[in-house]
């Protein structure tokens, strides 16, 4: 049994499947409670049903990006762990970047199935879990006080052209993450002469810019649900084409 077969073994599927099932059950419970709460405050059943239908419809296609992440990671980490991570608490950009950084830190050239070992998998899985758990812990401990502070200063923020600290912090962290990727791609270009990562980055950025143009300028807000998945699909197609012809 090779490493990928071990990472796709039945016990791992059972463990991850049980956790995901618990999350699904909790989601259904909260959905039912929200539906009953809507009826209790006098909302029309037709409005509630339309809301559920539209939400479900606009959730399916954006989840393609999550499926793509599972497929991308399953080649080196097996299917159960990426399935669990991206179904419960993980984010696509976080999981892929942290897994790759962890792999390189323990001496691998990257997320390559041919180099993967059980020890490397355990280290990667542990780092992925420890790195993202703090959001949940901080939410439990500090969200109530933070929300009270936001509500108390809500009127001031409505008169400001800037968002709150959370918006600015997330924007700054995202820009920092993208800058780190660009630096890595520039290093790949200068050291190995491989321009494909930069070209794929440019293509995905162009596609996202087109989405943002229609969202902001043409007021097509529904495209927000498809921008990430669409950019990823185009970027993956460009990566394949560049790899074949460059």
Rounded to the nearest angstrom, the distance between the terminal CA atoms is 36 Å
Backbone CA Rg? 21 Å
Strand content: under 5%
Sheet with most strands: none
**Count of alpha/pi helices:** 11
Q: How would you describe the oligomerization state of the chains in this entry?
A: single chain
- The global form is globular
User: Considering DSSP H and I runs of 4 or more, what fraction of the residues is helical?
Assistant: over 70%
Give a count of the beta strands, DSSP E runs of length 2 or more: 0
Structural domain tally: 2
- Compute the average pLDDT: 85
Can you tell me the residue ranges where pLDDT is under 50 for at least 5 consecutive residues?
none
Structural class: mainly alpha
The helix/strand series, from N terminus to C terminus, equals HHHHHHHHHHH
Description:
- With 246 residues, this protein is mostly helical.
- The chain folds into 2 domains: 1-148, no CATH class; 174-246, no CATH class.
- The protein is 80% helix and 0% strand.
- The protein is built from 11 helices and no strands.
- The protein has helices spanning 3-7, 10-40, 45-60, 64-77, 80-88, 92-105, 118-152, 154-158, 165-192, 196-216, 227-245.
- Helix 4 packs antiparallel against helix 5.
């Amino acid at each position: 049994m090779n490493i990928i077969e071990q990472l796709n073994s039945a016990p791992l599927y059972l463990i991850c499947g049980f956790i995901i099932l618990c999350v699904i059950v909790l989601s259904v419970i909260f959905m039912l409670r929200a539906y009953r709460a809507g009826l209790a405050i006098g909302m029309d059943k037709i409005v509630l049903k339309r809301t559920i239908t539209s939400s479900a419809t606009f959730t399916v296609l954006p989840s393609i990006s999550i499926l793509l992440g599972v497929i991308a990671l399953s080649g080196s980490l097996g299917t159960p762990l990426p399935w669990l991570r991206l179904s419960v608490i993980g984010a696509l950009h976080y999981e892929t970047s942290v897994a790759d950084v962890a792999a390189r830190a323990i001496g691998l050239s990257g997320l390559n199935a041919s180099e993967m070992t059980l020890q490397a998998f355990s280290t990667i899985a542990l780092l992925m879990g420890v790195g993202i758990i703090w959001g949940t812990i901080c939410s439990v401990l500090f969200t109530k006080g933070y929300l009270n502070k936001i509500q108390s200063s809500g009127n001031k923020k409505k008169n400001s052209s800037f968002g709150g600290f959370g918006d600015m912090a997330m924007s700054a962290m995202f820009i920092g993450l993208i800058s780190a990727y660009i630096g890595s791609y520039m290093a790949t270009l200068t050291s190995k002469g491989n321009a494909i990562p930069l070209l794929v980055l440019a293509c995905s950025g162009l596609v996202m810019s087109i989405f943002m143009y229609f969202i902001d300028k043409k007021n097509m807000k529904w495209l927000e649900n498809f921008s990430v998945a669409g950019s990823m699909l185009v970027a993956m197609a460009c990566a394949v084409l560049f790899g074949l012809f460059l």
